[in-house]
From TrEMBL:
Keywords: Hydrolase. The keyword Hydrolase applies. It comes from Hyalella azteca. Pfam families: NUDIX, Nudix_hydro. This is Nudix hydrolase 7. Residues 219-348 form the Nudix hydrolase domain.
Length: 429
């Protein structure tokens, strides 16, 4: 601020009027206003109040002068009238500027110009972000970048505005190019929420009278294992991982990538590891485990797949071995984990009784997004049970017609008992 005062005095001394006590008083008034404004805008706004003046105005010391009315018009219309300041400060600012010639304009116009766009555009000083349905704001550093000078003042002003508006959660998506934002955000109460390859997200809960309801980041990883079974030979595609702690035969598979369906992930993993192409038939089993990779929970889906090719081209980077193995041999093999034995039993039971978990694609009625519903299909076994039940009921109905009321009641109760037993048996299977 001292440098600003020196520039102002030098500029006035070069002007075409004498520096009287009145002028010195007005000079002091202007400097006082600049002090107030800089304090209100966190020491940045005063750096660019007049920086939008035409470049020729900045040549005043070389002998060029401009009429007072012209300068005041230039200052007022594009800049000051668009700045949201307290009314008393506005009046004092205008009053001081209207008393000063172009020297005042020169001294400020030679300072930092980094805030010009924000002062010319009152909305630009605040982060806009996008609103979420929970009353929060999401700001992207790529869409609303700020330099080192303007970031913290914009952040402070935005936080004040959001708090007044009743905004709850504030999220900042920070690109790798803008990581200098991180310590400033941390200083203002933001914490890390999650990070990815080129971006980190920080968040702050604004309400002081309500507990945070901000969701934690995704804490579950999803994996898939493929039971690729050849129907002609009853063989199962198995692999031996190169980086396992101890040798064992396992199912080909891996993590489900973002945006992948289970069927897509399984087909991709099988092809990458073994060179075999396969398509989804059904879901065989699901395993849920805590404290897995990265401390996350783990959901592992075992799916039955039908091979559309059988030639193996093993991925030597990931596997030590890969082969087709008889299912009966795999179920008894000493190098097969107990969990995988259970998966085989689930498959064999599903095959025997015709019940399986099938995928049904649907469109969500609200979001209009594609989704897949996995539900139980009772298959041929269920149809047999239903046919047997219907036949039993028909036979009992004919028997009822030939007997009296008391006998009919007894027979009907017996029929219901038989149906219930069938349903229980099916559930147990």
């Amino acid at each position: 601020m001292k440098i600003l005062e020196i520039r102002l005095v030098r500029s006035i001394s070069r002007s075409n009027f004498s520096v009287t006590e009145t002028h010195r008083g007005k000079l002091g008034s202007l400097i006082s206003v600049l002090h107030q404004l800089s304090s209100y805008y966190r020491n940045t706004a005063h750096l660019a109040i007049l920086s939008s003046l035409p470049s020729s105005c900045r040549h005043y010391p070389n002998g060029r002068d401009y009429p007072l009315d012209t300068l005041i018009s230039i200052i007022k219309k594009p800049v000051l009238e668009n700045i949201t300041i307290r009314e008393p400060m506005r009046k004092e600012m205008f009053g001081a500027l209207e008393e000063r010639p172009s020297a005042a304009a020169y001294c400020v116009s030679t300072t930092d110009r980094s805030m010009t766009s924000h002062l010319n555009n009152p909305e630009g000083c605040l982060f806009q972000g996008k609103r979420d349905r929970y009353g929060g704001v999401i700001v992207s550093s790529q869409l609303e970048n700020r330099d080192d000078v303007s970031f913290e003042p914009s952040l402070t002003a935005s936080l004040e505005a959001w708090t007044a508006e009743g905004v709850r959660g504030v999220w900042f998506e920070i690109h790798l190019l803008h990581t200098h934002w991180v310590p400033v955000l941390a200083k203002h109460g933001f914490v890390f929420h999650h990070g990815e390859d080129s971006e980190v997200v920080m968040v702050r809960w604004l309400p002081t009278d309500a507990p945070s309801t901000l969701p934690r980041y995704a804490h579950t990883v999803v994996g898939v294992g493929a039971m690729v079974v050849r129907e002609d030979s009853g063989q199962l595609l198995v692999v031996e991982d190169k980086y396992c702690q101890r040798p064992h035969w396992k199912l080909p598979g891996g993590y489900v990538e973002r945006g992948e369906d289970l069927s897509e992930a399984a087909a991709r993993e099988v092809l990458e590891e073994t060179g075999v192409r396969a398509e989804l038939v059904s879901v065989v089993a699901t395993r849920h485990m805590h404290k897995a990779a990265f401390g996350c929970c783990d959901l592992y889906f075992v799916v039955l797949m039908r091979p559309t090719s059988t030639h193996i081209t093993m991925c030597t980077q990931e596997l030590n071995d890969c082969r087709w193995m008889n299912i009966s041999e795999y179920a008894e093999h000493p190098l097969v984990h107990e969990t995988n034995r259970l998966f085989v039993q689930c498959y064999l039971q599903s095959k025997e009784y015709g019940a399986s978990i099938r995928a049904t694609p649907l469109v969500h009625s609200v979001t209009n997004r594609q989704q897949i519903i996995y539900s139980i299909d009772h298959g041929s076994r269920s149809e047999v049970v239903m046919q047997e039940s219907k036949k039993q009921m028909a036979d009992d109905g004919r028997e009822t017609a030939r007997c009296g009321p008391m006998q009919a009641t007894s027979l009907c109760n017996g029929a219901n008992s038989s149906i219930n037993e069938l349903e229980i048996d099916e559930t147990q299977d």
